[in-house]
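Notes to self after the Tuesday call (sharing in case useful).
The group wants a holo model before anyone commits to mutagenesis around the pocket. I volunteered. Ligand is zinc ion. Logging inputs and output together so the record is complete.
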Amino acid sequence: MVINRGIVLNFDEIHDSWIPLLKKSQLNVLGLHNWSADGLFENKIDEMISFMNSERGHALLESLDKANIRIEFEIHAMSWLLPRQHYASHPDWFRMDDRGNRTPDANCCPTHAEGIEIIQENSIELAKQLRPTTHRYFFWQDDNKPWCNCRECRDLTASDQNLMLMNKILEAVRSVDKDAKLAFLAYMNTLDIVPQTVQPSDGIFLEITGPFIHHMANRELQRPMNNAKFQQSVSNHLSFFGAKGAHVLEYWLDASLQSGWRKPAKRLHFGQKQVKEDIAFYVSQGFQSITSFGVFLDADYFREYGIPPVEEYGRVLQQ
Ligand SMILES: [Zn+2]
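Result:
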């Protein structure tokens, strides 16, 4: 049986049916996400913080606690940790593109000490505001975006730059939560290659996304079973990071992906047999922590299509 059985929902799509459904499905971890239609993830993090500090947020925490379901936050965090408005006064905190220009479009310059200091200060603030009861933190790099080409960074792969930054973030978060662990998200350009020169600090764990997202245009490669390259990559990453604490983030319940990230949501297609095989693959590799996005499963979705197949998913994770 998978130990951590989760689902990742957008914080602003949670409604009253969810806690009883999670309970019935024997899921024990709820991840909150900050998907945003306009891509301004930093604003969504501000909203998320307000929500968690509101009466509704407190009520959510209380009912999760009663149901023995732990909470964590799987979020796009880069533009909150290094606000883009610093670019005007400190362009060198930001990444250099391949033409030699500093740009605030994505990620950061992970070797710039002053920029890193700002990111660390903000990581501490974020860790205080959004406290996971699992002690697992997820402060992701920007989605499939390039990293820094400055003189100090250019010889480091995207994976090395990401890991270098995650080590620094973890160091900061541990100053407010000594049990903190931080995900290294292997996703698209950071899934292709394991870090070459940077080593993970104690407390960094591997988070791997399912192959579907990397192969949107090729149905054949969307499942781990059919994708030798993905399997190799999983194996390389597990050798590098270790299987202990390794975590899978999949898309089996993600109505947002199946709807092309546009509302109104389409009815979710859930292939139980395939999901079972996928989970068996991950378990065979040593993963004991598995979750799936379930973005767009809001109150409108339940009204339109009824209860999504969360119980079916929970049953497969139990086996
Ligand atoms: Zn750099």
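Two things stood out.
The first helix runs from residue 18 to 24.
The CA atoms of residues 142 and 212 lie 19 Å apart.
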